[in-house]
């Protein structure tokens, strides 16, 4: 199979990041075993951050910046700290130090360190690592997707009536849309139930939801109000596993567009897209 290289050094970028993410995993695991960390809120009462989120992001960015001084970074906690999102053609690492911070705070073992790499605004590589369950998902464009080194494939399910779908109520969207959001989110659940969905799951981490679509145990996932760091790494993994990752309206994914729909097959993605009530966000970056 021809391999499409966006950059001759892409393998070096990926391998270096992978080793750093494994080290970061030890930080997260050690902190997870401690009784508590200092918890603060950010944009809303449900938007949490801990010292571990900040320490892991600082460690990843410091390590990558020292090795690749020309590279740029978009990190959840750096942005929360006031850094502007600048998405340029430069190799850009898109980082969520802990996706699933609420899980982390509540000691629910569904957390993921997410590191995605974009070059010329194209997502090229993704690493999603849950150091608690020891699930390491990786992918590079054209190379396939892997879990702990073994190839993974998304499901072949084409209809909602045979699907398990990841969905969350996305209560953070109340900040933007008020109670109207609850009606939309509950309506979106309802139409899937009426279409005969086998069940809904919500793992509390966008990246884990997507990694589970990639490995085929969940058939689809859609969410509004997410950010680039929640989905960039996992988007590469889903696509390389044979799945589709699109804007919920059916167009190409804009990683800065704050919404995502992914599925094992295009048919299932289209059926889900067609029944959702959509909301729009100002793109970031
Ligand atoms: C959140 C998780 C959650 C999703 C939110 C994200 P965080 O990320 O991915 O599943 O519903 O939209 O913000 O805050 O845990 O890094
Ligand atoms: Ca996140």
From TrEMBL:
Subcellular location: Cytoplasm
Keyword annotations from UniProtKB, A to Z: Cytoplasm, Hydrolase, Magnesium, Metal-binding
Domain of life: Eukaryota
Biological process, per Gene Ontology: inositol biosynthetic process; phosphatidylinositol phosphate biosynthetic process; signal transduction
Cofactor(s) the protein needs: Mg(2+)
Record carries keyword Transport: no
InterPro entries in the cross-refs: IMPase, Inositol_monoP_metal-BS, Inositol_monoPase_Li-sen, Inositol_monophosphatase-like, Inositol_monophosphatase_CS
EC code: 3.1.3.25
Pfam families per UniProt: Inositol_P (PF00459)
Signal peptide bounds: none
CDD domains documented for this protein: IMPase
Entry annotated with the keyword Magnesium: yes
Pathway where this protein functions: Polyol metabolism; myo-inositol biosynthesis; myo-inositol from D-glucose 6-phosphate: step 2/2
Enzymatic reactions: alpha-D-galactose 1-phosphate + H2O = D-galactose + phosphate; a myo-inositol phosphate + H2O = myo-inositol + phosphate
GO MF term set: inositol monophosphate 1-phosphatase activity; metal ion binding
Homology family: Belongs to the inositol monophosphatase superfamily.
Protein name (Swiss-Prot/TrEMBL): Inositol-1-monophosphatase
UniProt organism field: Steinernema carpocapsae
Lineage: Eukaryota, Metazoa, Ecdysozoa, Nematoda, Chromadorea
């Amino acid at each position: 199979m021809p391999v499409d290289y966006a950059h001759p050094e892409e393998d070096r970028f990926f391998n270096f990041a992978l080793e750093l993410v494994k080290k970061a995993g030890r930080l997260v695991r050690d902190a997870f075993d401690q009784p508590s960390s200092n918890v603060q809120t950010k944009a809303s009462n449900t938007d949490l951050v801990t010292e571990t989120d900040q320490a892991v992001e600082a460690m990843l960015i410091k390590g990558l910046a020292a090795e690749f001084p020309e590279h740029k970074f978009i990190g959840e906690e750096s942005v929360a700290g006031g850094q502007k999102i600048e998405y340029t053609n430069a190799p850009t690492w898109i980082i969520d130090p802990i996706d699933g911070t609420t899980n982390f705070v509540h000691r629910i073992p569904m957390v993921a360190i997410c590191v995605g790499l974009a070059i010329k605004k194209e997502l090229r590589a993704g690493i999603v690592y849950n150091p608690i369950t020891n699930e390491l998902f990786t992918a590079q464009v054209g190379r396939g997707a892997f879990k702990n080194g073994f190839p993974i494939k998304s499901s072949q399910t084409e209809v909602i009536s045979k699907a398990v779908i990841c969905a969350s109520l996305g209560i953070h969207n109340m900040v933007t849309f008020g109670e109207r959001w609850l009606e939309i989110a509950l309506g979106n659940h309802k139409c899937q139930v009426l279409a005969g969905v086998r069940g809904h799951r919500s793992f509390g981490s966008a990246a884990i939801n997507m990694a589970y679509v990639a490995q085929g145990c969940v058939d689809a996932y859609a969410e509004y109000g997410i950010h680039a760091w929640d989905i960039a790494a996992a988007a590469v993994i889903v696509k390389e596993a044979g799945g589709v990752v699109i804007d919920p309206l059916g167009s190409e994914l804009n990683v800065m567009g704050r919404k995502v729909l992914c599925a094992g097959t295009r048919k299932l993605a289209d059926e889900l897209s067609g029944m959702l009530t959509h909301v729009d966000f100002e793109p970031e970056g």
